[in-house]
Amino acid sequence: MDAPEVRIDVVDSDEAGELLTLRRAAFVAEAQEYGDPFIPPLTQTLDELRADLARTDVVTLAAWVAHRMVGSIRVEVEGTKATLGRLVVVPDMQGKGIGTQLLLAIPPYLPPETSEVWVFTARDAVHNLADAYEGENEALGDLTYAYLRRILGAGGTLPTQG
After folding, report:
1. Which fold has domain 7-156?
2. pLDDT tens digits for the chain (162 residues)?
């Protein structure tokens, strides 16, 4: 199966409604799995999302196939640390490498002093990233989240797996 032609770019405020819809569609399966319809991606309002997109310490990237937004990732930068979260791909496009493309698109958006990348994800999603990151778990209510860390190489690059 051929991978779809994907365009990755920064999400702007005009695309906030589409991003909100994408996240809600993608995170509903996680909410059902954990029996919690109140996870943050499902309770965030459009105004809150627009405020998040306007932050200077946050970059939100999205993947488009033709004119359809099919995935996104949020990157928050604090000092030398970047934290990735809300990585989603629409259900019908999962398994086509879109999530990987989003992850690989991040380094040019990081400040040069960034030395490590952390991923915030549900504990059960860790298997998708375990080869690239080392981690720790944290309980939050009924859910357990994982924080996974990757030390960057010189110039903020993601070291290759060897």
Report:
1. Aminopeptidase (3.40.630)
2. 567 899 999 999 999 999 999 999 888 877 787 788 887 788 899 999 999 999 999 999 999 999 999 999 999 999 999 999 999 999 899 899 999 999 989 999 999 999 888 886 554 444 444 444 344 444 444 433 444 455 556 545 544 433
Domain ranges for the chain: 7-156
E strands within the chain? 7-10, 58-65, 68-78, 81-89, 116-122, 134-140, 143-151
- Nearest CA-CA partner of 56 in 38, 78, 35: 78
Using the structure block, give the residue that is written with the tokens 């996870």.
39
Say whether pTM exceeds 0.85: no
